[in-house]
Amino acid sequence: MSRFAAVIAGVFRRYATWLVAISWKRFILLSVLLLIIAGVLSEIPPFTWPIMETAPKVSRLHTPSGDVDITIDEQGVQIKRKRQEDPGAAASLGQEIRREIIDEIKAERESSHLVRLGDFLPQLAFLFIVVSTAIKIAYAGRATAEARATEAQKTAEAESLRRQVVEARMAAMQAQVEPHFLFNTLASIDHLIEVDPPRASRMQKNLIALLRASMPAMRESAATLGRELQVVHPYLEILKVRMEDRLQAEISVAEGLYSADFPPMMLQSLVENAIKHGLEPKPEGGALRVDAEVAHGKLVVSVADTGVGFGRAATAGTGTGLSSIRERLKLIYGPQAELRIAGNSPAGTRVTVVVPYKTA
Question: How far apart are CA 135 and CA 309, in angstroms?
């Protein structure tokens, strides 16, 4: 029984899938054709059969003379005479009985129910079309939902893959920057140990603080603005020692925003871009400012410098880094985040990251 039910369910699913696959125009055409075929078949005589009454029927006939009772039932024809007749009336009585039996048989045939199967074909065809329409509508919605779910899953997988690629690219860029920065800092410390031990000690302490803050952040997929500032602050202190008076840095972020979510290593990348492509190429150096605020439910973090400006910085290669940051923001937050690049007054560039404001 279960196997038969499974076969029926399989046939039903295949039929429903076929209904969804065909167009409504083709479905309507097939429905009209089915109604026409049902109408033609309903007029064909072979599609009839007699349905006799199943209950036993007993008929009693009375001759005009009233002296003979004729009973017709499932046992046959029974004749009973009420009184004796003369021999001359036997022949006329036989003919009279014969006529009565023939009339009764005709009446039985007329009273039997003849049902034409063809009479029901148009109704059955119409019912089949109505049921098929309901199945097509129901399964079309289901098929659409399944297709959307599959497409959404594919899109999510593609976005996840793209995010992994971007994260790997950012990690590769970070891996390229960190050794270069680390080697230069160690070389500066080695030089300052001989000429200025206090500065060397200060740089060494900031390097330790930088490594202590940046190492966990590089392994995490989420971070806070406070954690990012723990990386940026010693980084700027180290560069102040190296660039001396050519760099003036200021961080203006309220402590209440330290718990706000912010992508890891992104703020440091913005600061590195500002110094490497904005301030270092400028002989007299300049100032760098990091600030943050909450506006319209968004966290707005800006890195502004008074360097050579974005036009010249873009030719130096910072455009690639900012493009990677923009792509990373899109993958993490979608349309809810943006990267703004504008000129700074009186000179330089202001890069602003806008992300949804959430606290950890």
Answer: 65
The alpha carbon torsion through 208, 209, 212, 216 (nearest 10 deg) reads -140
Q: How many domains are contained in the chain?
A: 2
C-alpha pair distances (Å), 121 with each of 124, 323, 333 = 5, 69, 61
For the domain that residue 290 is a member of, what is the CATH number?
Answer: 3.30.565.10
Q: Does residue 33 form part of some domain? A: no
CA–CA distance, 18 with 26 (Å, rounded to integer): 12
Peptide bond into 281 cis (omega under 30): no
DSSP assignment of 314-356? IIIIIHHHHHHHHHHHHHHHGGG-EEEEEE-SSSSEEEEEEEE
- What amino acid is encoded at 39 in this protein? G
What does the pLDDT look like over 202-218, one tens digit per residue? 888 888 887 777 666 55
Which amino acid type is present at position 138? A
Between the CA of residue 155 and those of 94, 145, 181, what are the distances in Å?
Answer: 96, 15, 38
pLDDT tens digits for range 330-355: 888 888 999 999 998 888 999 999 99
